[in-house]
Design a protein that fits this description.
This protein is of the alpha/beta class. The chain has a single domain, classed as 3-Layer(aba) Sandwich (Rossmann fold). It has helices at 47-54, 81-87, 109-120, 126-139, 156-167, 186-202, 214-220, 238-241, 248-255, 295-299, and strands at 5-14, 21-31, 36-40, 63-71, 74-75, 92-95, 174-178, 206-211, 223-228, 231-237, 305-306, 312-313, 321-322. The strands form two sheets. Strands 6-7-8-3-9-10-12-11-13 form a nine-stranded mixed beta sheet, with helices on both faces. It has a four-stranded antiparallel beta sheet with strand order 2-1-4-5, with helices on one face. Helix 3 crosses helix 4 (126-139). The longest helix is centred in the middle third of the chain and has 17 residues, at 186-202. The two termini are 18 Å apart.
Length: 323
């Protein structure tokens, strides 16, 4: 089966005169058409860098990117800027945490959508754009009058829905949400996530949901990838990983988060800090914070292993087959 996105040995390093930071290190994963993948991990784990690197929206003079990210047969790492510009927003789109802040305060929503639409479809008529926008506004439960409103006449939740509408204008094959609901209240966040899940049943959409909130992944994704210090440490179906986490870091994340099913539990923080990625540890990146650390963990880096239930885990203490 051909994957929609096939990421192989992808590494991204921020270049600096004093020290280079290895923000993403040898990441491998695939996404099939129709998948919804939650990418989770604490702040600084490399989630956003991974997404923005693949979309080529990081300053190219300040990073070094190696490996490959094959999207519909094209390598996002090596294709020309011209080819990438044709793909970005049309075939791959992203919704940022505060995407609403990118809207002009002095122009109506409809005017801004028309300008954005014309970047990829310069010959599109006003009626075509209006009809497409009305269709998408309905998908995210927004009234048609939004088209004529100014941003200041709308709430934060409405503006974030507008950002989602803009990202869907050209019906992209892959949509990335980068902490897109984090700044919203819990009720609005829940509504938007529910709308996103319903949208996927209506239109052909494959999604990557970047978040530090396990409840977002549990309620809106089929698969989850756990990232720590620039590396993937566990990836599999949400029902398997969140119910029975195998990697000590995933276990720590679940212990520090309230129960997803409502029962009372004592929350426990993960001790210590992320390692300095300008000088990554030789062995397992999580070793210094892991309660089960062994000498092997300190000396040898674990690789992702295939588990009987189909997930993959990078831990010396978890049995499995080499991937």
């Amino acid at each position: 089966m051909e994957h929609l996105l096939d990421v192989r040995d992808l590494s991204i390093t921020y270049l600096n005169k004093s020290r280079n930071v290895q923000a993403v290190r040898h990441v491998n994963f695939t996404i099939d058409k129709g998948d919804s993948l939650g990418l989770v991990g604490e702040s600084g784990s490399g989630k956003s860098t991974l997404a923005m690197g693949m979309l080529r929206i990081l300053p190219q003079e300040s990073i070094q990117m190696t490996g490959s990210a094959l999207f519909m047969g094209k390598d996002l790492v090596t294709i020309s800027d011209e080819e990438m510009n044709k793909l970005r927003w049309k075939e791959i789109a992203i919704v940022f945490q505060k995407a609403m802040n990118s809207l002009s305060p002095v122009h109506r929503i409809g005017t801004q959508i028309e300008d954005i639409y014309h970047v990829h479809e310069p010959k599109a008529t006003k009626k075509e754009i209006h009809d497409r926008t009305m269709e998408l506004l309905k998908l995210v439960n927004m009234p048609e009058r939004v088209y004529k409103l100014y941003p200041h006449e709308m709430s934060g939740g409405m503006l974030q829905r507008v950002a989602i509408v803009i990202s869907l204008l050209h019906n992209p094959k892959l949509l990335v949400f980068d902490e897109a609901t984090t700044a919203l209240d819990v009720v609005t966040q829940g509504q938007i996530l529910e709308e996103v899940v319903q949208m996927e049943k209506t239109i052909e959409m494959t999604r990557i949901m970047i978040t530090h909130d396990m409840s977002v992944v549990a309620s809106s994704c089929k698969k989850v990838a756990v990232m720590y210090a620039g590396e993937l440490v566990e990836i599999g179906l949400v029902r398997d990983v969140l119910k029975n986490p195998l990697h000590p870091y995933t276990q720590g994340l679940m212990s520090s988060f309230p129960s997803l099913t409502g029962e009372k539990k004592q929350l426990r923080a993960i001790p210590g800090f992320l390692p300095d990625l300008s000088d990554p540890p030789k062995g397992c990146a999580f070793a210094s914070r892991c309660p089960h650390c062994t000498a092997q963990c300190m000396a040898q880096k674990p690789t992702l292993r295939d588990m009987p239930d189909g997930r993959r885990v990078a831990c010396h203490l978890v049995g499995g087959n080499e991937a």
